[in-house]
Description:
Elements: E1 2-4, E2 7-9, H1 13-20, H2 24-49, H3 54-61, H4 65-73, H5 80-89
Antiparallel strand pairs: 1-2
Helix pairs in contact: 3-4
Amino acid sequence: MKKTNDKLKSIPFEQFLKKHMKNEQFRIGYEEELARLRLVRQIREMRTEKRLTQKKLALKTQMPQSVIARIESGEHSFSVATLSRIAGVFKKQIKLA
C-alpha cells in the first residue's frame, strides 16, 4: 500500500511484484522462497497420496511429528539433511541445480 495525502492506497500484487522484481536481491529471495514453498507442497502431497499421517512420516524419518508439521506449515525452513530423510521415505532423490 502506498500512502498518499495521509491515505493508504492499495495496489495489485502483480504491480507490486513487477516493480520489485527489477531488484536482483528481491528477485533472488522471492524465487528461493517460491522454490521452498513448492517443496513444502510436494512433501504434503506425497504424504497424503501415500496415506501417511504426519506422525507416521515422522516415525519413518526418525523425526518428531512437530518437525513435519512445521515443514508442512510453510512457515519454517528446513535443512538439506531433513529434506533428504523425507525424500528417502518416498524413494526420491534430491537434485540441486
